[in-house]
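Reviewers of the previous submission asked for a worked example of the structure-prediction workflow described in the proposal, so we include one complete record here. The input consisted solely of the amino acid sequence. No template or homolog information was supplied to the procedure at any stage.
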Amino acid sequence: MTAKESNELTNKIIHALEIAEYETLKKKAMLNQNVVVEDENGDPIVVPAREVFVERFNEPVPTF
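From that input alone, the workflow returned the following structure tokens.
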């Protein structure tokens, strides 16, 4: 595999992970579920997915 092919594959994987994160957070937000994130100290905390979705993607939570 060439360096160019490796970079293209890496970019495709990163893009797929970004889509998966978006869709997962959107679905959890729509269902009023919680997610685990880290606080400023790196400790895990549970927060509503709605807050994370709005903060991370700067768009309102869709409805069914």
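The longest strand covers residues 34-38. We consider this example representative of the routine output the project will generate in years two and three.
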